UniProtKB/TrEMBL annotation:
One of its GO terms (biological process) is transmembrane transport. It is found in: Cell membrane. This is Carbohydrate ABC transporter permease. Signal peptide: none annotated.
Length: 296
């Protein structure tokens, strides 16, 4: 194809275009990394440095100290909320992924029971949501107030994730299902031994979506958990960092860190799990979401 008839996006980029792209990426990376840098540095700064700066620390002054993290992990409020968040995220993610896989697989098989009606109901959730008050009344009516299930069940299934999984399952060649059924495999065996191994990429992406949603969810805990001892880390983060409520001081520290440093340490602990997990799942994003959506 001659350069005259070649589409614009297939043309070799010019030096100016490459420079503009590089500069844009550098600016975006700076806008993302600089706040993380200031938060991390403030959490590692001494009281003298934070007091002298009067806010977030941009340049290390009197060295690095881990007093803020020491106080945070000695504080029963923060430590307990961290354990609660880990438990809710682990249990909720397992429940959500299993239910979503089962639902998406049944909806990907034409002729399954209630296929069209259930699929229409799932798609309807994209435009119509029950709303806060009906969900709150439902949770209260079944006795889940002040129960961790009140955080998990209302967000156990995401219509978007079910549709993405269904689209990927439908892209699997029908011949594989036919050959498995000829060998006497049932639906659960087909799902476990054929569909699941071929769908590791999309399952990894959906798992990340659910895990991040549970880890960052504070609103359901705010609504349904009356006991502050059951609060997850996200709600503690909102209460003591966003609303600037006084955080109980941990005993046993000779040089107590400033409140701002402790708050930034809590923010770092809330961010670190996502930063650790995301690089391992990122390679699956294109294959898991984009290919599944296009083929569906």
């Amino acid at each position: 194809m001659s350069s005259r008839n070649r589409p614009a996006w297939e043309e070799k980029p010019s030096a100016a275009g490459l420079a503009a792209k590089g500069a844009s990426i550098a600016v975006i990376a700076l806008l993302i990394l600089f706040p993380l840098y200031t938060i991390a540095l403030t959490s590692l700064s001494s009281g003298e440095t934070v007091n002298r700066v009067g806010g977030l620390v941009v340049w290390p002054g009197d060295g690095i100290t881990f007093n803020a993290y020491e106080q945070m992990f000695r504080n029963p409020v923060v430590l307990r909320s961290l354990v609660v968040s880990l438990g809710i995220t682990a249990v909720g993610t397992v429940i959500s992924v299993v239910v979503s896989i089962l639902g998406a697989y049944s909806l990907s098989r034409p002729g399954s029971f209630g296929h069209k009606t259930i699929l229409f109901s799932v798609l309807l959730m994209f435009v119509i949501f029950p709303g806060l008050i009906p969900v709150y009344l439902w949770v209260s009516a079944i006795g889940l107030r002040d129960n961790y299930l009140a955080i998990i069940l209302p967000m156990a299934v995401s219509a978007f994730n079910v549709v993405v999984l269904r689209a990927f399952f439908m892209s699997i060649p029908q011949e594989l299902f036919d050959s498995a059924r000829i060998d006497g495999a049932g639906e659960f065996r087909v799902l476990w031994q054929i569909v699941t191994p071929l769908s590791k990429a999309v399952i990894a992406v959906v798992t990340l979506f659910y895990a991040v949603a549970y880890w960052n969810n504070w609103f359901n805990a705010f609504l349904y958990l009356d006991d502050s001892g059951k609060w997850p880390l996200a709600l503690v983060l909102r209460t003591y960092v966003v609303e600037s409520a006084p955080l109980p001081q941990a005993s046993g520290l000779q040089d107590a860190p400033p409140t701002l440093a402790v708050k930034m340490a809590i923010v770092m602990i809330a961010i670190i799990p996502a930063l650790i997990i995301y690089p391992f799942v990122q390679k699956h994003f294109k294959k898991g979401v984009i290919i599944g959506a296009v083929k569906g």
